[in-house]
Amino acid sequence: MGSEGPSAPERVLTPGGDPARGHPVQRTSDRPPAELHRVQRRSVRVLVGSQVLGGVGVAGGIAVGGLLAEQVSGSTALSGLAQTATVLGAAALALPLARLAAAAGRRPALAMGYLIGLGGAVLAVLGAVMGQFALVLLGLLLFGGATASGLQARYAATDAASPLTRARSLSVVVWATTVGSVAGPNLSGIGGRVGEAVGVPSLAGPFLLAAVSFAAAALAVWALLRPDPLLAAHPGGQEAPGSSAARPAQPPLRTTMRAIGSIPAARLGMVAVATAHAVMVGVMVMTPVHLGHGGASLQLVGIVISVHVAGMYAASPVMGWLADRLGRVTTIGIGMAILAGALVLGAAADQESHATIAVAMLLLGLGWSSALVAGSTLLSESVPSPMRTSVQGTSDLVMGLAGASAGALAGPVLQAGGYPLLNAGAGLLLIPVLVLIARQPRRRSPGRTG
User: What are the boundaries of the region Disordered (predicted)?
Assistant: First the structure.
């Protein structure tokens, strides 16, 4: 799973070096390649396990979050704030967790995110028991901490990876989210019965299961993610007292954004990830409403969304393979083309053409996956090592805000012009990415970025 042979060249991008152009670069790890290979294999296995555990809790909570918010608030209009709170929580915690990773390693940062999510799940249950909507929203905001850890786990999979298989390592961890995304909602019924058994509202029960899954994920990364892949992949990366004290302070957000903007490949990586996420969220959140207007049953809506989620995660190893074989920029371009095809198909489909819309949603998930895997990999390897974690956290912050904004605007757009206008508007968001792709320097070989 995402492993690379010990004979793979151990090269890490540093300023002035570009393996895709045949430029030599220096290793930044003081560990032998064979040892770093073992660290990478173990890290990917642990991260896959933690993604499954955490994903069960995240997906289960998201599945009932809107219903719980509606029940406690007594307002359908306020139910949408549940998903918005979780997305904003993940975005707000992205940078602090990245800074913690830079200071102390991936292990404490990922564990902290899951523990914050655990606290949020408990607060959501308390809010449901007390009938306090504000407390439920606060809980859902903190619940986003688990989402933030799940997203940053994909970067942890690249810390000790060889450049030749870095995208595949990242994609395998993304793929593991599939298990949680499928299992979590299917455990909602069990969670409801557990909740009733302990005296809490049935819709709050899945959050009890989420708290357990987050605790298990935190324990897994804390106990098993050793050696820490981020510390192992950098000079002096030892898990010893005081080892993190010498690690450089992370730059402020403004400095990080300027640095990303000054590196064409990094800029493309971040914009591609944020754009794909905005397009996906904007269309996805309104598709159930559109299908409902077309007479689709709740069961059919669930099937369509399941197909979409499968497209997002199940094919991510293929996207990682493409990014390693064809190059990051090429794979981003493929993702944009798939997204464009999804939007054209969705805009042209009749409201009753449920099968066509399902195909469009599958393509929407595949395009998102391609852009996320290739864009995240390109971003990570295009910036200097000392600021890499800060850049990754900043990208997740921008990604979350882009998704939340698109989700908030999607409703008014659908109401004003229908599903075709929503898809057309989402299509306009792809233009800046295509412009950045066209401006990327030409590569002599596919390598890592071309």
Answer: 1-38
Among 124, 120, 125, 188, residue whose Cα is nearest residue 149 = 120
d(CA 403, CA 207): 23
- Residue 400 makes CB contacts below 8 A (sequence gap 6+) with 87, 88, 90, 91, 92, 94, 277
Q: Which one-letter DSSP state was computed for residue 227?
A: S
The angle, 0 to 180 degrees and rounded to 10, between the axes of the packed helices 388-428 and 430-438 is 120
Sequence-distant (6+) residues with CB within 8 A of 388 are: 380
- pLDDT tens track for 42-58: 999 999 999 999 988 98
Q: What tokens does 81 get?
A: 């704030």
Give which of 442, 427, 441 is closest to 337, Cα–Cα: 427
Closest CA to 94 of 5, 47, 14, 154: 154
List, for residues 71-92, the tens digit of each pLDDT value: 898 886 677 678 788 889 999 9
Q: CB neighbours of 399 closer than 8 A, spacing ≥ 6?
A: 91, 94, 151, 273, 274, 277
* CA–CA separation, 7 and 10 (whole Å): 9
- For the domain 249-450, what is the CATH superfamily, name and number? MFS general substrate transporter like domains (1.20.1250.20)
Residue 345's nearest CA partner among 417, 420, 272 is 420
Q: How far is CA 244 from each of CA 105, 222, 237, 431, rounded to the nearest angstrom?
A: 8, 16, 8, 42
Q: Hey, where are the domains in the chain? A: 29-227, 249-450
The answer to whether domain 29-227 and domain 249-450 are alike in fold is: yes
Q: Which fold has domain 29-227?
A: Growth Hormone; Chain: A; (1.20.1250)
pTM of the model: 0.80
In terms of DSSP H, where are the helices of 228-353? 229-232, 253-262, 264-284, 287-293, 298-313, 316-326, 328-348
